[in-house]
Amino acid sequence: MKKKVLLMGASGSGKTSMRSLIFSNNPASLTARLGATIDVEQNHVRFLGDLILNLWDCGGQDAFMDSYLSTQQSTIFQHVGVLIYVFEVESRNREKDLEYYRNCLDALRRYSPDASIFLLVHKMDLARPPREQVLERKAEELRQVSGDVPVTVYGTTIHDESLYKAWSGIVHTLIPNASVLSRHLAILAHACSATEVILFERTTFLVIATSNPPAAPSFSAPPLITSTPSSSFTSNGFTSTSTSTSTRTTSTATVTSQHAVNVPEPRENDPHQLAPTRYERTSELIKAFKYSCSRVREEFHALEMELGEFTAVLDELTRNTYVLIVVHDPTIETAALRMNIRLARQKFE
Ligand code: GTP
Questions:
Q1: Ligand 1 binding site (Cβ under 6 Å of any ligand atom)
Q2: pLDDT score of 199 more than 50
Q3: For the whole model, what pTM was predicted?
Q4: Distance from Cα 10 to the centre of ligand 1, integer Å
Q5: Burial category of 270 from C-beta neighbours within 10 Å (exposed 0-12, middle 13-18, buried 19 and up)
Q6: Running DSSP on this structure, what letter comes out for residue 236?
Q7: Which value does ipTM take for this structure?
Q8: How much is the average pLDDT of 323-339?
């Protein structure tokens, strides 16, 4: 099953940068070197089993946009599953951006009326505070321009985890059996006495599904993992060791300490609350760690974290996925969690 995803927006709005972070594991610092996209660049990413994401990164220069909306209209806009339209939060060409967006919406209505539409208000790091208000104003403007077409708006920047939140949300809508997956993850969570089990796509580390425990168990939950943008685990109090085997290299990180950075603390009267940004933060951190591994020519395979309050094991589940198991019971050994992952593999393949 192939899902066509159109990535559109003005030139310089940041489309290729986000693609390079999410799909090619590059750090934000390298995006400044990216050249303008000429015409359309296509990528294929295999998600779970049969689901293939066919991403069309459409160069945003006026000449290309005009051509997508005229001679190439049917090629570009037919069979679209998702349109992701990127707007710079502080654009100097606001009117022109909106005009192109309106024209793209019309073309999409004609050729792919069922496509889902996601609008990214991007480069939020450049917005003048208070950023929530800036985003809300921009989102309102975009909803008005979209008229009766339903749209989902996210505020994003390549400099924090917001990009992963948006893309995980988008990808989640493309996965047909997400609720079945969640049920299986809940069974795995139960078997491991885990607080939560999270399934990630292998290349992008976007969240595919979670076990979503209905009633949180009784524990005092610190933020799952904390980070500063594009930092490596080592600089954050994580230590990493790498060991080579004859068949593959395993990079293992052990968390020895942590410092909360911009993570909402659990409320005093509610010790069960987990940090709401934990999924996208984990995606961002693992990607940063994978990048660190690649710089020392090691391949990332698995991760274990042991803190006083919780243990987490991240390991391959299937060819296209990783699973993260988080446990708050100190009597449960990581080896047991790894064994359960091994045993669960067949079910998920
Ligand atoms: P075209 O290929 O011409 O359509 O442009 P594009 O939309 O692909 O833009 P691109 O990804 O090449 O990004 C343009 C510039 O924006 C690069 O220098 C990026 O480093 C920068 N950029 C991308 N995302 C962000 C962001 O979130 N914040 C900031 N401050 N800069 C960003």
A1: 9, 11-17, 31-32, 34, 36-37, 59-61, 122-123, 125-126, 157-159
A2: yes
A3: 0.80
A4: 10
A5: exposed
A6: G
A7: 0.98
A8: 93
